[in-house]
Amino acid sequence: MTTLSNTTRRALLQKGAALAFARTATPVAASLAAMANAAAQSATDYKALVCIFLYGANDHYNTVVPYDLANYNAYYAIRKGTTLTGPYEGIALTRASLAATALAAPLSGGRQMALNPQMTGMKTLFDAGRAGIVMNVGPLIVPTTRTQYDNKSVPLPPKLFSHNDQQAYWQSSFQTEGSASGWGGRAADLMLSGNSASALTCISVNGNALYLSGQQAISYQMSTTGATTVNAIKAKSLFGSSACAAALQTLMTQSGTHLLANAHTQITQRALNTYDSVANAIGASASTALSNLFPTSGTNTLSAQLKMVARLIEKQAALGVRRQVFMVGMGGFDLHDFLPNQHPALLQKLSDASLEFDNAMRYLGTSSQVSSFTASDFGRTLSSNGDGSDHGWGSHHFVMGGAVQGGQYFGLAPEIGITHNAQVGSGRLLPSTSTDQMGAELARWFGVSTTDMPAVLPNAKNFDLNKLGLFKA
Known about the structure:
Layout: H1 6-17, H2 19-24, H3 26-36, E1 47-54, E2 64-66, H4 69-79, E3 84-85, E4 88-89, E5 92-93, E6 113-115, H5 120-127, E7 131-138, H6 146-151, H7 163-172, H8 183-189, E8 202-204, E9 219-221, H9 231-235, H10 242-253, H11 259-282, H12 288-292, H13 301-314, H14 316-319, E10 323-330, H15 339-364, E11 370-376, E12 395-400, E13 409-410, E14 433-434, H16 435-446, H17 453-456
Parallel strand pairs: 1-10, 1-11, 7-13, 7-14, 8-9, 8-10
Antiparallel strand pairs: 2-6, 3-4, 4-5, 7-12, 11-12
Helix pairs in contact: 5-15, 13-15
């Protein structure tokens, strides 16, 4: 059998893994292949993107709520009901409950918004100019009107209103379930040369994440307690024997003559080495000072995930990384029922964790170097289906960090109603801003050039990428 060099093996495996991707997106795959053979962009400073994914489709109508009297009345008339649950009448929040979280920043035409009453932490960030709200953003292939949607006269994102497919579309930016790479991973592909520890470029603290998968960049998964490894090797004991543990490590890392076996060995060795690097850098637990900045992390899974992200950012110099992309998230947002009972607690966890993370970044002195944003499957209907809402399309999202042009809204605020042309039925918003437009501004801040943007966000070329202004000059 002909012996392949390590470079040849790696190239063969990378090209093979990209085949499924290439079948459905040949131009993008070709662009990424070209990147792999060219000098990647390098960075001398540190920056990180943190995606906070809200699985199940967050009800944006009860997250960023109309507060001026005319639009609140339109919202209330559609969502009201006879069932009273705390500050909810049906699934409509009472206007009185929104007074403390009303946002002073106005929209055009005298419109005003308020945050959910549980989102006091997010209001603090917004008022301080450290968070902004992107209005009515969602997947689009090209700018689309209601007439074009009805007539199917422009290409539309496939499988709209499907959870798995739209989660994948948000994260890949061009493909539904089964996608091979995400736009965060493709952005990271460009930055690998700036990281001596390339395995720590893309990190998920929330399980497998399409968003973080690139052609070269690989998603490294961690738990909220730290890096994971083979317990026997970590403890240097298997069945009470150090010799057995050593034998296991030898079996897992020895080279051979079979191509795939050698690839497995390389991956295993990389995982073991990366574990050692992370464990040595961040230690067994967070410092007391950092722990105190995450007071809800014991009961709030999102807070615990962001605490781990903060620990890694604190040690980014020791880990040898200058560009990182993180993925965290929380589930439970598919509230066809029990929305007044369950949604407030979810939003409070999001709000509390976001404020804690911002406090931690300021403490570490990295606030302007770290930007976080929310994403979700899709929005929800304005109309009620009893005590919940149904699958939608466009939604409102948050962008946070010291570099963000905060304290304001980005994009167009939609009309409130179920018959206007900015919705496609039951108040399902037709996005006025595409995920590519939002993603492009995040990616540009991260360091992706205008030239490389179409390879990171394939539909970006179809949109005006300079209209939002998410970041300070």
